[in-house]
Write a structure and sequence with these properties.
Number of domains: 1
Oligomer: single chain
Low-confidence stretches: none
Order of helices and strands: HHHHHH
Helix content: over 70%
Protein name: DoxX family membrane protein
Radius of gyration: 15 Å
């Protein structure tokens, strides 16, 4: 496969991930509400919807070649910014089943490849 096609597929895959995640913030908001850090002002649902909108906007930016560079960099920043919510989720799951704990704690190291993927997509933009 040629490098340009591979980069485009990677960007579209990242856009798909962001778009699907953004949509779930509206379709099933309750799990997201529960991981909003309490230190944030306002209602958790507001933050859930705001982050859903952000993910949908990032998906669009990453999907479009013209905005892919900025979109990739902003997606990397977004993945870093939501890390505290993932930490909160892991801590909140301490009393849950072993499987639920494993999923919650397993999400934490996954943020690193997501940030690196988004940065790579941003750097490879035309």
């Amino acid at each position: 496969m040629e490098p340009t096609r591979s980069r485009s597929r990677s960007a579209l895959a990242l856009a798909g991930l962001l778009g699907a995640a953004g949509a779930t913030h509206f379709a099933k908001p309750r799990p997201y509400d529960s991981i909003v850090p309490r230190a944030l002002p306002g209602r958790p649902r507001t933050w859930t919807y705001a982050s859903g909108v952000a993910e949908l906007a990032l998906a669009a930016a990453v999907a479009a070649p013209r905005t892919r560079g900025l979109g990739g960099k902003l997606a990397a920043a977004f993945f870093a910014a939501v890390f505290p919510a993932n930490v909160k989720m892991a801590l909140d799951h301490r009393a849950k089943s072993p499987g639920a704990r494993a999923v919650a704690w397993g999400r934490l190291p996954l943020q690193v490849p997501l940030v690196l993927w988004a940065l790579r997509v941003g750097r490879s933009a035309p």
